[in-house]
Amino acid sequence: MKSVLGKLIEKEFGRSRYYIYRDKLQKRESMDIFFDIYESLRRQSPDALNESMLGLLESVQSSIRISRNFARVTMAAAAAVLILLCLGLSQAVLFASLAVLICSYAYKAAEYVRNRYCDRDVKIVLIYKIALFHLMEESCLQKKERKVY
Protein backbone atom coordinates (compact mmCIF):
# COMPACT_ATOMS: atom_id res chain seq x y z
CA MET A 1 0.00 0.00 0.00
CA LYS A 2 1.46 3.34 -1.07
CA SER A 3 0.65 6.76 0.26
CA VAL A 4 -1.56 9.06 -1.79
CA LEU A 5 1.44 11.25 -2.51
CA GLY A 6 3.54 8.27 -3.62
CA LYS A 7 0.76 7.27 -6.00
CA LEU A 8 0.74 10.80 -7.42
CA ILE A 9 4.47 10.71 -8.15
CA GLU A 10 4.12 7.26 -9.71
CA LYS A 11 1.26 8.48 -11.88
CA GLU A 12 3.10 11.59 -13.02
CA PHE A 13 6.57 10.14 -13.57
CA GLY A 14 6.25 6.35 -13.58
CA ARG A 15 7.07 3.65 -11.07
CA SER A 16 10.73 3.32 -12.02
CA ARG A 17 11.43 7.04 -11.61
CA TYR A 18 9.57 7.03 -8.29
CA TYR A 19 11.98 4.40 -6.98
CA ILE A 20 14.93 6.30 -8.45
CA TYR A 21 13.77 9.44 -6.62
CA ARG A 22 13.45 7.49 -3.35
CA ASP A 23 17.00 6.19 -3.75
CA LYS A 24 18.34 9.65 -4.56
CA LEU A 25 16.63 11.08 -1.48
CA GLN A 26 18.36 8.47 0.64
CA LYS A 27 21.68 9.54 -0.88
CA ARG A 28 20.75 13.21 -0.30
CA GLU A 29 20.72 14.04 -4.00
CA SER A 30 17.58 16.15 -4.03
CA MET A 31 18.91 18.60 -6.63
CA ASP A 32 19.13 15.70 -9.10
CA ILE A 33 15.46 15.00 -8.43
CA PHE A 34 14.58 18.67 -8.92
CA PHE A 35 16.42 18.90 -12.25
CA ASP A 36 14.88 15.65 -13.51
CA ILE A 37 11.36 16.75 -12.55
CA TYR A 38 11.97 20.25 -13.93
CA GLU A 39 13.15 18.91 -17.29
CA SER A 40 10.20 16.56 -17.46
CA LEU A 41 7.70 19.32 -16.68
CA ARG A 42 9.38 21.88 -18.94
CA ARG A 43 8.24 19.94 -21.99
CA GLN A 44 4.58 20.26 -20.98
CA SER A 45 2.15 22.89 -22.13
CA PRO A 46 0.76 25.48 -19.70
CA ASP A 47 -2.58 23.63 -19.71
CA ALA A 48 -0.84 20.39 -18.78
CA LEU A 49 0.99 22.23 -15.98
CA ASN A 50 -2.36 23.47 -14.67
CA GLU A 51 -3.70 19.91 -14.73
CA SER A 52 -0.61 18.74 -12.85
CA MET A 53 -1.19 21.45 -10.27
CA LEU A 54 -4.81 20.36 -9.82
CA GLY A 55 -3.71 16.75 -9.39
CA LEU A 56 -1.15 17.84 -6.81
CA LEU A 57 -3.71 19.84 -4.85
CA GLU A 58 -6.24 16.99 -4.92
CA SER A 59 -3.65 14.49 -3.70
CA VAL A 60 -2.52 16.73 -0.86
CA GLN A 61 -6.15 17.35 0.16
CA SER A 62 -6.83 13.62 0.08
CA SER A 63 -3.80 12.93 2.27
CA ILE A 64 -4.91 15.57 4.78
CA ARG A 65 -8.47 14.24 4.74
CA ILE A 66 -7.25 10.73 5.60
CA SER A 67 -5.33 12.09 8.58
CA ARG A 68 -8.20 14.25 9.82
CA ASN A 69 -10.85 11.57 9.51
CA PHE A 70 -8.91 8.87 11.35
CA ALA A 71 -10.12 10.04 14.79
CA ARG A 72 -13.72 9.78 13.56
CA VAL A 73 -13.04 6.33 12.10
CA THR A 74 -11.61 5.20 15.45
CA MET A 75 -14.60 6.52 17.40
CA ALA A 76 -17.03 4.95 14.95
CA ALA A 77 -15.24 1.59 15.16
CA ALA A 78 -15.29 1.68 18.97
CA ALA A 79 -19.00 2.60 18.96
CA ALA A 80 -19.73 -0.21 16.49
CA VAL A 81 -17.95 -2.74 18.71
CA LEU A 82 -19.94 -1.57 21.74
CA ILE A 83 -23.21 -1.73 19.82
CA LEU A 84 -22.43 -5.22 18.54
CA LEU A 85 -21.60 -6.39 22.05
CA CYS A 86 -24.80 -4.91 23.48
CA LEU A 87 -27.13 -6.36 20.84
CA GLY A 88 -26.98 -9.88 22.23
CA LEU A 89 -26.28 -11.55 18.90
CA SER A 90 -25.42 -15.20 18.57
CA GLN A 91 -21.72 -15.98 18.87
CA ALA A 92 -21.30 -16.86 15.20
CA VAL A 93 -22.87 -13.60 14.00
CA LEU A 94 -21.05 -11.57 16.65
CA PHE A 95 -17.64 -13.03 15.77
CA ALA A 96 -18.24 -12.64 12.04
CA SER A 97 -19.36 -9.01 12.52
CA LEU A 98 -16.40 -8.24 14.78
CA ALA A 99 -13.99 -9.86 12.29
CA VAL A 100 -15.31 -7.71 9.44
CA LEU A 101 -15.18 -4.61 11.63
CA ILE A 102 -11.64 -5.32 12.82
CA CYS A 103 -10.42 -5.99 9.26
CA SER A 104 -11.98 -2.74 8.07
CA TYR A 105 -10.45 -0.80 10.92
CA ALA A 106 -7.05 -2.42 10.36
CA TYR A 107 -7.17 -1.32 6.71
CA LYS A 108 -8.04 2.27 7.68
CA ALA A 109 -5.30 2.26 10.35
CA ALA A 110 -2.73 1.03 7.83
CA GLU A 111 -3.89 3.71 5.36
CA TYR A 112 -3.58 6.37 8.05
CA VAL A 113 -0.08 5.28 9.12
CA ARG A 114 1.10 5.04 5.51
CA ASN A 115 -0.15 8.53 4.66
CA ARG A 116 0.81 10.14 7.95
CA TYR A 117 4.41 8.92 8.04
CA CYS A 118 5.47 9.01 4.39
CA ASP A 119 8.36 11.43 4.79
CA ARG A 120 10.10 10.39 1.56
CA ASP A 121 6.95 10.89 -0.49
CA VAL A 122 6.34 14.29 1.11
CA LYS A 123 9.88 15.40 0.26
CA ILE A 124 9.52 14.26 -3.35
CA VAL A 125 6.16 16.03 -3.65
CA LEU A 126 7.65 19.23 -2.23
CA ILE A 127 10.40 19.10 -4.85
CA TYR A 128 7.72 18.47 -7.49
CA LYS A 129 5.69 21.43 -6.20
CA ILE A 130 8.71 23.75 -6.32
CA ALA A 131 9.52 22.74 -9.89
CA LEU A 132 5.87 23.10 -10.90
CA PHE A 133 5.52 26.54 -9.29
CA HIS A 134 8.76 27.70 -10.89
CA LEU A 135 7.64 26.63 -14.36
CA MET A 136 4.18 28.13 -13.92
CA GLU A 137 5.70 31.41 -12.80
CA GLU A 138 8.04 31.36 -15.79
CA SER A 139 5.13 30.65 -18.09
CA CYS A 140 3.12 33.52 -16.59
CA LEU A 141 6.03 35.94 -16.94
CA GLN A 142 6.57 34.94 -20.58
CA LYS A 143 2.90 35.57 -21.37
CA LYS A 144 2.99 39.05 -19.89
CA GLU A 145 6.36 39.78 -21.52
CA ARG A 146 7.61 41.82 -18.62
CA LYS A 147 10.77 43.75 -19.15
CA VAL A 148 13.47 43.71 -16.49
CA TYR A 149 15.28 47.00 -16.08
Summarize the SSE layout with pairings.
Elements: H1 4-13, H2 15-26, H3 30-42, H4 46-86, H5 91-116, H6 119-144
Helix pairs in contact: 1-2, 1-4, 1-6, 3-6, 4-5, 4-6
The span between the termini is 52 Å
Order of helices and strands: HHHHHH
Number of helices: 6
Number of strands: 0
Bin the strand percentage: under 5%
* Low-confidence runs: none
Report what the structure shows.
The protein has 6 helices and no strands. It has 149 residues and is mainly alpha-helical. The model has no long low-confidence stretch (mean pLDDT 91).
Summarize the structure.
The protein has 149 residues and is an all-alpha fold.
Write a concise keyword list for the protein shown above.
0% strand, mainly alpha, 149 residues, 86% helix
